[in-house]
């Protein structure tokens, strides 16, 4: 299956997860990943979802992630790359292939799910 090509063999972009981002994500999220374009969110705050219930699986279930042609392993790699390189995450526990496989079912209504998670984040901030 084409999606099973190891990331390091995919050219001509730089090797590894960055090339996966270039091919599968950049078209929507942009090279810098730090600007909102219409309903396409910047990814530089994506780590905040890790702090609320349901947020971690949501990052896998976001439609552009769940529906990408990438394998589960590649998806874990690109998500880990985004979190490590595009967000100021602390104490990050990397996504695993198994975790992606378990949760990889695209959200039916990602914007509503996102809004619910954002409300959870806001509630956390109020409490602090
Ligand atoms: C077709 C455009 C598109 C593509 C391609 C795409 N995304 Fe997204 N992404 C979105 C939109 C729009 C959302 C907001 C939720 C929604 O409406 O689906 C989102 C949400 C996300 C989120 C959750 C963060 C948040 O603020 O909601 C992450 C993480 C993410 N995308 C990462 C990726 C990665 C990694 C890839 C490549 C594998 C990718 N996206 C490909 C459009 C896209």
UniProtKB/TrEMBL annotation:
Q: Which InterPro entries match?
A: Cyt_c-like_dom_sf
Q: Which Gene3D superfamilies match?
A: Cytochrome c-like domain (1.10.760.10)
* Highest taxon of source: Bacteria
The name this protein goes by in its record: Cytochrome c domain-containing protein
UniProt source species: Modicisalibacter luteus
Classification lineage: Bacteria, Pseudomonadati, Pseudomonadota, Gammaproteobacteria, Oceanospirillales
């Amino acid at each position: 299956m084409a999606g099973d090509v190891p990331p390091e063999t995919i050219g001509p972009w730089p090797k590894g997860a960055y090339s996966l981002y270039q091919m599968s994500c950049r078209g929507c999220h942009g090279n810098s990943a730090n600007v909102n374009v219409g309903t396409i969110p910047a990814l530089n705050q994506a780590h905040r979802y890790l702090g609320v219930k349901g947020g971690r699986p949501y990052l896998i279930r976001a439609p552009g992630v769940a529906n990408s042609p990438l394998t589960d392993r590649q998806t874990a790699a690109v998500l880990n790359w985004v979190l490590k390189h595009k967000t100021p995450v602390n104490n990050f526990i990397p996504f695993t292939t198994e975790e992606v496989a378990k949760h990889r079912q695209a959200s039916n209504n990602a914007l509503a799910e996102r809004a619910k998670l954002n409300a959870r984040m806001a509630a956390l901030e109020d409490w602090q």
